[in-house]
Specification:
With about 400 residues, this protein is α/β, with parallel strands linked by helices. The protein folds into 2 domains: about 200 residues, Glycogen Phosphorylase B (Rossmann fold), CATH 3.40.50; about 190 residues, Rossmann fold. It is built from 16 helices and 13 strands. A 7-stranded parallel β-sheet has the order 3-2-1-4-5-6-7, with helices on both faces. It has a 6-stranded parallel β-sheet with strand order 10-9-8-11-12-13, with helices on both faces. Helix 5 links the parallel strand 4 and strand 5. Helix 4 crosses helix 5 and helix 12 crosses helix 15. It starts with a helix and ends with a helix.
């Protein structure tokens, strides 16, 4: 019966996501999965938060989209701030459960650990739940409660890195590690036109140090800014690119970063580019990528993009980067929240371009061998088929 199923049955997977940051890593990773599944074997539907800017991108890719009012349980000690979440919780659960049942989904995939409504809706709809966890908990009471809930409700729990899996060992046999994968097709032939340098009026002799990601305190862009004067002391022509837009719930952080640049007198050396759609070109014109997260990254997809672009990486030695960056070979790992250590490594790579090139070459080989989107999609498809086949046999 399983063989007959695999030949004829198209598996209907509904993907549920609650955030609304168009440049967020979890948003981009889910989009890659949904749009890359085999259309001959899978039918994908997406349930998003009302107002999610990714909705139009999904529709342009031919994916059916439903939008539901969703709220996240806030990471706060003030119980009053949970009240809107509790008010919204059950209406959104019932709405999502109704959608899941009405479209006759075979499997429900919930993206990120904070989408509690969709997970509960999957159980109410009596559908297998694949819960894709992309966060490392901070050992708070809320995090522990969510991790326990994940293990209780999920048919299968996916951790996108070994670091995430370490926080979910209580899930037992339902826990699977599927390392993140990224579409690297744009990096096979790295751009050489230097349009970014020309557009930003940066000369060929000026080193470019780049950081990419949402502007929020946890990403630690402020750590890089504190390191900038230390780098400029020995490499005064260096330019720093801060690529990304403000997180929807932290708009004040970008203002604080720019204000600090003015206080330090480095605003001419630091360029805030905003959200960019030409990341391969930015990395091609950069000398290195920096990741300065002060809370552990579950994975850090920009690291893989930089390695694929033949660029060395300097990243915080915590979480996902411990698995992706080979210290001393594809880049450097530095202590969290340590501007001096960060500045030392940046300066060392600027002073040793041959080493930077060697690290970049090793990183590119590693990115394509270990972190391709093709590998990720193959593992996801096998999991969905296993779940639905087991259900029917």
């Amino acid at each position: 019966m399983a063989r007959q199923f695999n030949q004829k049955k198209i598996i209907h997977v509904v993907f549920c996501h609650y955030t609304s940051d168009i440049c967020g890593g979890s948003d981009r990773s889910l989009f890659d999965i949904v749009t890359s599944l085999s259309r001959e074997r899978f039918h994908a539907t997406v349930i998003l938060k009302t107002g999610d800017p990714m909705a139009e991108k999904y529709r342009e890719a031919g994916i059916e989209v439903f939008q539901v009012s969703l709220m996240s349980p806030r990471r706060t000690r003030h119980i009053v701030k949970f009240i809107p979440f509790f008010i919204n919780y059950w209406p959104s659960v019932f709405r999502i459960a109704w959608i899941i049942r009405s479209i006759k989904a075979d499997v429900v995939h919930v993206n990120t650990s904070l989408n509690l409504q969709s997970a509960m809706a999957a159980k109410l709809a009596f559908k297998p739940l694949v819960w894709h966890v992309r966060e490392i908990g901070q050992n708070t009471l809320l995090d522990k409660m969510i991790q326990r809930l994940v293990c209780l409700l999920a048919t299968h729990t996916i951790a996108n890195s070994l670091s995430v899996a370490d926080t979910l060992r209580q899930c037992g046999k339902s826990l699977i590690v599927i390392l993140n994968g990224i579409d690297l097709s744009e990096y096979k032939d790295i751009p050489t036109h230097h349009l970014v340098r020309q557009h930003l009026n940066i000369q060929p002799y000026q080193p470019i140090v780049t950081i990419i990601g949402l502007l929020e305190p946890g990403k630690g862009q402020h750590v890089l800014i504190e390191a900038v004067p230390l780098v400029l002391k020995y490499h005064p022509t260096t330019q720093f690119l801060i690529v990304g837009g403000s997180a929807v719930n932290k708009p004040e952080y970008e203002i604080e970063l720019k204000s600090r640049c003015q206080e330090l007198g480095i605003d001419k050396n630091v360029i805030f580019t905003g959200i960019r759609n030409d990341i391969p070109s930015i990395l091609a014109d950069s000398n290195m990528l920096i990741l300065t997260s002060i809370t552990p990254e579950s994975f850090g997809r920009t690291i893989i993009e930089a390695m694929a672009a033949n660029r060395p990486v300097i990243a915080t030695a915590a979480g996902g980067p411990l698995e992706t960056v080979i210290n001393g070979e594809t880049g450097w790992l530095v202590p969290p929240n340590n501007p001096q250590a960060l500045a030392n490594k940046i300066g060392y790579l600027i002073s040793n371009p041959e080493l930077a090139h060697e690290m970049g070459s090793k990183g590119k080989k590693r990115a394509f061998n270990e972190f391709s989107l093709e590998r990720l999609i193959k593992e996801m498809e096998l999991l969905f088929e296993k779940i639905v086949t087991k259900k029917l046999t």
